[in-house]
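Worked example 2:
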Amino acid sequence: MVCYNTSCNSYQKWFVGNDIRSILLADEAVAEQVGNHVYPCVAPENTEGDFIIYFRQKYSKSSTKMGVYQDECQVAVVAISDNYDNAVALASKIDNALTGPQVVGDGVRIKLELVDSMEVYDDNKYIETLLFEIK
């Protein structure tokens, strides 16, 4: 994660999922479709309707003798629905809500960029996975 100001610290690296959840819950289009059903790592058993899970896919540091010069962080955000059209619509809403500059935490500015996506059908659910890089 490359931050745009000097207040960036280890908080953002480890807890960026919390910020992503807050951004998604604050987005009217996302909240209209899922309410507050945005969960870290796994949804509660028997969760019904459309929902979102998110998890850190990658966090790494590159360093030299002088110390860390770059952090890389990726977070997967997963739209899940019983209906294909709803899953795709939710993925689009997630993309719109997250892509671009964001102000999080204590006023830290980050940028989220969609770097990959995929879709699958499993356990009678349509699953749209979006992978965001945190810059």
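The helical segments are 10-26, 28-34, 84-98. The two ends are 4 Å apart (CA to CA).
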